[in-house]
Request: fold
Amino acid sequence: MATHLTRIITLALLLFSFSSLEAAAQTGTITGVVKDEKTQEAIIGASVGVQGTTIGASTDLDGHFTLAKVPAGPQTLVISYISYQTKSIPNLTVEGGKVLVVNTGLAESAHQLADVVVTGQRITNTEVAVITEVKNAQLVAVGVSSEQIVKSQDRDAAQIARRVPGVSIQDNRFVLVRGLTQRYNSVLLNDILTPSTEVDSRAFSFDMIPSSAIDRMMIYKSGSAELPGEFAGGVIKLYTKRAPQENFTNLSIGGGYRANTTFQQVQQAQGGKLDFLGFDDGKRDLPGNYPVQLHVPPFTAERAAAYANQMPNRWGLQTKKALPDFRLGFNMGRRFALGEKEAGTMTSLSYSNTNQYSDIDLSFYEGQKVGQQYNDRTYSSNARLGLVQNFWLRVNPRTSFEFKNLFNQMGFSESVTREGQDITSSDSDVRAYSQRFESRSLYSGQLLGKHELANDKTNIDWQSGFSIIRRTEPDWRRVRYIRPHVTPGSEGVPAEFGVALPSDPNPTDAGRFFSELTERVETVAANLTHQLGQKDSSSVSGEERGMKLKAGVYAERKDRNFASRFFGYQGVGNTSGVRYLPLDQVFAPENVTGTEGKFTYEEGTEPNGRYDASNTLVAGYASLMVPVGPRFTGTIGLRAEYNDIKVNSRRLDGTPTQGGTSVLSPLPSLNMTYTISDKALVRAAYASTINRPEFRELAPFSFYDFNLNSNVVGNYTLKTANIQNLDARWEYYPASGEMISLGAFYKQFRNPIESFLLYTPSGLSNTFVNSKSAQNYGVELEVRKSLSELTNSSFLRRISLVGNASYIFSRVDLGETVLAADLGGEVSRENVADIQDQKRPLQNQSPYLINLGAYYDNPEAGTQVNLLYNVVGPRIFAVGNLLNPTVYEAPRNVIDLVLTKRLSQKLELRAAVQDVLNQPVKLVQDLNTNARIDNSDPTVRSFRRGANSSLGLTFKF
Reply:
């Protein structure tokens, strides 16, 4: 802790010393307000720049702009905005260290004049633009701009999302809105639904989208006809960056030091030549000549062993020093003319390679006693390669097209050495190993068009998209050594550790597991917005309003293929001569021959080890926005979704099964806004939404999770859940870039889908069930406030505060019985009336969430210092039963410090310390079954991630 505080103080002193040197440079500031010359209303989002430089800004909600670090001397100011004539103001004299005020106006374009070309593009990625979008929405919404992302130093979409009110993150990559699990979110990338990145759940892994590619993130918490109908938490819209307002090129490079990891001695499994890029080089794959099934018989033990030796002996661990984290980014934007048309491109290339060592303590309880107790030494490396390539073309002021492409490749390698004691099963000392590599590839492409008809009342936009996710786990190796338990301090020589050989092949003991998931999504959508009648400006807020009709259609086809195989080593006769060999030798080719005293190799893949699935979704909607008087606006809508989902698989006994249903869901919605003044309003909303079972949840495929020591199996009888949603929120906008909001929500679930824990003779098993009902309600507060109007201190005036907090309550009722699947995929009705968790909070539901941020910004000196805080309340990690009580994830306070310094017009320094406190990640089991964490409850999993210190430079060309 002291070391990190020392680093923070040192970085702060260095950057503030740079600040004092920079303040002496001969530069000045231009500030002012841009208004409409005719109406004298502020123009929001106008582009203001200094000619011949890269210095520019956009006007805020009050039309205000500030340009810092303008070179002293004569300068020309250029101001432009769509539908206005571009204006140049020459011969402005900028004096070093002084502020020049320039207030001006823009004249509307005369469309009939051939020599006037209207140029411009709506700015969407600033804090002001996002707050404006939230204010003008007819829904309950929140957002994060790329401007705020830069301040936070967040590296991917998951880290960005945790800054949003009511949002928490699970496993560093899944977004939970209002405490509801990721299954209750719909995620759209550039207005196209994303595929699921996970085998076991309906979830999108937000760590796959690098922050450098994001223009903004919007989260809609209330429903409406134009939004997808499948959500209860939120609809999350991610937008990648558009064509730039002006040309730019920048290169960023950075490194990171993680406590407990960097430069420490770690053990890592043998990797491939392309692991550093996130790709597998193919050496982990099964050879092409492998038989479809490798069973003994019909294969002889010798022949099966020969197939085993076609796979290289990669079981040994290598000792190395963990390297520092490394990050590299390249961004380039160009805007140009194609004849009389405007065009632009945006390219973003990112690469990172990060490392993590964790020392994890594990305890598995059976009743009130410890059944197994282990220590895991885990080392992981995560390589990510990302590319965003977007194209933009404006044919004329009424027609534009975009072609957006995102590719992301991630490679995750993990080596685990587990040591401890299996008390219940065999009273044995255990030394186990897990070595795996996971590759995830994502491509998402969208072609989008926007058209404004000549009547100036009708807008049409359309999207077509294609996405594909490929996730592979080639050659996940797991082996367990055991020996009779040795009591610490006892006399005598302990027995040797020997490989545990099960009677039948399994992926846990001396096994190799292979899996591959591919999911493809094709989408088309079209939306129409039509102004009915004439607009009027009688609104209290001053904006022009009128009746507005929206209608649209959406169609999506999703296909998934999943296949897995596993193989196990088996002994032939007495294997005492080989099973005690060390890890790097025990499965060497000379020991896997299929002969007496050696090992053979056999497939253990069950009939339910693969499934194919498809989902067809067709939707249509219509909504009408009606202003009533100067203060009230109501929007009523209806969305209808027809969904046909099919999952084809087999039970453990080989019997074919088909899960899924065809459902037509009418989904009404109502959104109301009452404008109190031009700065305050109140919203209320109702929406009916649904939650469908996901492919994996319907498939009777059984999978063993090494880290959780539990099996997971699907349930083909699951039904679609129905949710009724109510929202209310008061919003106040005291000044440009500021807002205060207070909201409340209530949700009623019927047939919610939940994870359910079973205790079987083979161990713990998780399946999925429809509970009877559930409720979820709470309050949310958000504040974004600058201190500039509250103090005369030049230091305090540069500080703005951002904070949000949520208090949430939930309760799920399992009912008297549930339909649950066993490990073989057979579904039966389980009596849950006597289970202590029959009524409990929803899984992963946190009772409170708090985010705080203090931002210091000195644009003249080019210095920013940001201090951020986040905490998430206790939440259910795994739902329990009478024998295995519920496991909770304990709260954890996280503090991040970010410092940014502009060293010159073309060079910027960034430094950050993330997770300064480095508090442990803890899972606690509620053994006393009082539905909360207290001192008498044991910790079943605990480790520290390690504070991460990073330093980087950005070069602007």
